[in-house]
Amino acid sequence: MMESTDKIFITVAVKVEASLEKVWKCFNTPEHIVNWCFASDDWHAPAAENDFREGGKSTTTMAAKDGSFSFDFSWIYTKIKDLEALAYTLEDGRTVSVSFQQTEEGVLLTEIFEPESENSLELQKAGWQAILDNFKKYVEQN
Description:
alpha+beta, 3 helices
């Protein structure tokens, strides 16, 4: 019997009522990233660095507000198509692609990522979706 080598991917998406330019800037600029890149109100992103070019390394620090836990989420960009798409590889080798699509109702932002093996697929999807929902809230209120 042959083992399947098909990779699993998780897709999360959100529609943001803002211009494509604003969505792109808020998603990719450190001074904005620190305001939305966390999944719940008891977490925050105290630091973000973004070498925004293909081959550039970027890191966002995610931390519990009570100081009990923090980690760096780091990646290397493999593709940047201005106002349209980007792709990157996480430090552990998993890949992520992000697309930005202008619609009549706003910008449809879609992320497709390879899950890690520690947490359930449902938990990972919920966490990434929560971060995107937080992004939507931030962009629409600012």
